[in-house]
Design brief:
By secondary structure, the chain is of the alpha+beta class. Helices cover about 70% and strands about 10% of the residues. The strands form two sheets. Strands 2-4-5-7-6 form a five-stranded mixed sheet. It has a two-stranded antiparallel ribbon with strand order 1-3.
């Protein structure tokens, strides 16, 4: 233990106990003030939150009213063809469009946001139908405006039903939030009062403690504190025999010096740890550079394949082998698309083109014409969907559907719009698939390689998984087969409103 002596430079004029008590009173008063302010601010926030709980319900009621106004004014114009009804319709439609733009338009796991997104998409279709009905009426096209009016009326009822469901759901959620806010408000009040009482009690206790015999022990404490300030952290105060408040302070001082020593040691350990982290970071950077190098090397193989095929095309053209040239060119295009577009989306026209290339290649390989027909709505060519989706299904139909059958095999590709979806059907007249296997495929369970994997390296499980991730929904594919030798139809259900034109 270090013996404490009175430093030569110790000043006699220090802060008096009275000054310290005043400072203590000011500090504790400030603490009480800030606690009150904290309580006041949080109470106000809670009240504002309570006041704004049911705003969302009011907005949905307003949305329903404006929707009804659009329907009413459209009907008035279709019935009377008055300019006032037309003006009121356009104004109501604009107001309704502004309101639905405030609804969620992103894919989310939250049920309320999904309902908002559904209402928004249906509302866009509804406004489009009402506008077409108005224009048809102005053009005196009776059948057209009647058809659009009927569709708009049906969609109007369905939108109202969904808004009502969303309103009920938000009312339930808002009621829970309201109860939580009330509980939080009461909790804040209790905490605020408790803190004020605790601070007040501590303030009184500290004043009582500091007014007792503190002069000599505090002087010794000041000397010890000066030595600690000079860097001597091994000093230890002698504890008093009275076991009073000063003894508590002395023990706290001793614990402080121990904590400082431990803190210094901790800093040293942290510095060593940071040094090791930097070394690990440098090692990870080296590994990353090595991985990047290996990745660049891996790119050589597909480029080598494409360049080799292109060289073969040129050589075949020079030698006059036109069919060989076309075959190698189609093969190069097929593998280039496969490599380039696998992690991107594509236009439907691109997907159909790669199917044509694949059919051409297989015709050459099999030395026969595959009976492949298509019925496609050409207005849908610009829609976007995940790449390498159609070719694997066509390949499955060829490899496991119509191969090795005794009758002439056929594959039919049909693409058409049905309501708010685009239906892409690949149908064959081959062996068919058993019901339990279809269930396993749709549930993405592990099943035989011959049932899910294609020679292009992309299996049906991969196709189904990418479709579900891309569109954020489960009902993206259906498989129908009525049994052995009855053929199979695989249909992709693509949401039309999800598509963006290039």
């Amino acid at each position: 233990m270090v013996r404490i002596k009175k430093p030569l430079g110790l000043k006699k004029k220090n802060l008096s106990i009275g000054t310290r008590l005043i400072l203590l009173f000011i500090i504790t008063s400030a603490i009480i003030f800030f606690v009150n302010m904290f309580t006041y601010i949080n109470v106000n926030k809670a009240m504002e939150s309570i006041g704004g709980v049911y705003i969302s319900n009011a907005e949905l009621n307003k949305l329903t009213d404006v929707l009804s106004s659009v329907q009413r004014h459209m009907y008035e114009f279709l019935d009377t063809r008055s300019s006032d009804a037309l003006k009121n319709y356009y104004q109501s439609a604009e107001n309704y469009r502004n309101l639905i733009e405030q609804l969620n338009d992103e894919i989310s796991d939250d049920n309320v946001k999904l309902m908002e997104r559904k209402i928004r998409n249906m509302s866009d279709n509804y406004l489009d139908l009402t506008y077409k009905a108005i224009q048809a009426k102005r053009g005196r096209n009776v059948s057209k405006y009647t058809e659009n009016f009927s569709a708009a009326k049906e969609l109007y009822e369905y939108i109202k039903l969904n808004i009502f469901s969303l309103n009920n759901q938000q009312f339930k959620d808002n009621s829970k939030i309201y109860e939580l806010n009330l509980a939080s408000l009461k909790y804040i009040e209790v905490i605020g009062v408790s803190i004020i009482i605790i601070v007040s009690v501590i303030n009184v206790l500290l004043i009582i403690i500091m007014t007792k015999n503190i002069t000599n022990p505090l002087r010794r404490l000041a000397v010890a504190a000066n030595q600690v300030a000079g860097g001597n952290f091994s000093i230890e105060l002698k504890e008093s025999d009275n076991n009073d408040e000063i003894d508590v302070v002395s023990k706290a001082f001793n614990k402080m010096t121990i904590s400082i020593n431990e803190y210094i040691n901790q800093i040293k350990e942290n510095m060593e740890y940071e040094s090791r982290l930097k070394e690990n970071e440098l090692l990870m950077k080296n590994h990353l550079k090595d991985a990047q190098l290996k990745y660049l090397q891996a790119q050589i193989n597909p480029h080598f394949l494409f360049n080799t095929l292109n060289a073969g095309v040129q050589l075949a053209m020079m030698e006059g082998a036109e069919k060989t040239s076309v075959f190698m060119e189609k093969t190069a295009e097929f593998y280039r698309y496969n490599t380039k577009k696998l992690n991107e989306d594509a236009r439907l026209e691109e997907e159909i083109e790669i199917v044509h290339n694949y059919i051409y290649i297989m015709n050459v390989r099999l030395a026969r014409e595959i009976n492949f027909t298509e019925d496609i709505d050409r207005e849908l060519m610009d829609i976007r969907l995940p790449s390498m989706i159609l070719q694997p299904i066509i390949e499955n139909a060829l490899s496991y559907g119509i191969s090795d059958i005794e009758w002439e095999g056929k594959i039919i590709l049909s693409i058409y719009r049905q309501d708010d979806k685009i239906q892409i059907s690949i149908k064959d007249n081959g062996k068919g698939i058993e019901e339990d296997i279809i269930k396993d495929i749709l549930n993405e369970n592990s099943i035989g390689e011959h049932q899910t994997k294609t020679t292009s390296g992309i299996g049906l499980k991969n196709v189904i998984s990418r479709l579900k991730l891309y569109y954020g929904r489960e009902d993206v594919i259906s498989i129908i087969s009525k049994g052995a030798n009855t053929g199979t139809e695989v249909t992709l259900h693509i949401p039309y409103q999800e598509m963006d034109e290039e």
